[in-house]
Task: inverse folding
């Protein structure tokens, strides 16, 4: 049976494509942007390193999404255990017309235990 490849710009993105794009964002940090500047006095900031965020991008589990937002970006939430604690990140992926990664935006980072 033939493999179905979603047309770029469609309203769906496959889980394999999502994992590939997230790993590309982790490896090619030139395409990665943190939208919020955090103060070092914030408690979580002292506890989550940029390496943990990159590891979460690279091999985190998708908690929710991907869904297309009003700006046309693909948003998802990821989770990974890093250094014995949970790290949650929300990411928006902006794609080129051919479906390749143009830019990844880290929207939020959290390390609190979610019940």
Result:
């Amino acid at each position: 049976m033939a493999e179905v490849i979603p047309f770029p710009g469609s309203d769906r993105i496959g889980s394999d494509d999502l994992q590939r794009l997230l790993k590309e964002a982790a490896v090619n940090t030139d395409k990665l942007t943190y939208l919020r500047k955090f103060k070092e006095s914030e408690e979580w900031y002292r506890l989550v390193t940029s390496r943990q965020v990159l590891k979460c991008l690279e091999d985190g589990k998708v908690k929710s999404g991907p869904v297309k937002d009003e700006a046309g970006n693909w948003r998802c939430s990821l989770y990974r255990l890093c250094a014995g604690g949970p790290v949650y990140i929300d990411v928006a992926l902006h794609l080129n017309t051919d479906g390749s990664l143009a830019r990844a935006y880290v929207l939020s980072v959290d390390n609190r235990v979610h019940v």
